[in-house]
Amino acid sequence: MTPIYECIYAAVREIPPGRVATYGGIARHVGASTPRQVGYAMAALHDGRDVPWHRVINSRGEVSTRKSGYGASEQRRLLEEEGVYFDRRGRVDLTKFGWLS
User: Could you give the C-alpha distances from 45 to 52, 76, 85, 92, in angstroms and in order?
Assistant: First the structure.
């Protein structure tokens, strides 16, 4: 695991249940990262890690579609179980649920 990924994972572990952060928000929090790199780090996670990957969404407040299509519905389900609501367009209100806005 690269040191920057470990920094990203540490930041994502700080997101409280029921809140979300954007890829850009995590990148700014880490400091030496970009939103794309945060996305790559989330994609590199293996099952069983203690990183709440589902709490990281895009800047529009949406769950990002994955290349394989796997995970988007699971991510939404996990967020909804934590009390995060999506509007009719499938977006989260970042002013209400955002962390590190």
Answer: 10, 17, 25, 23
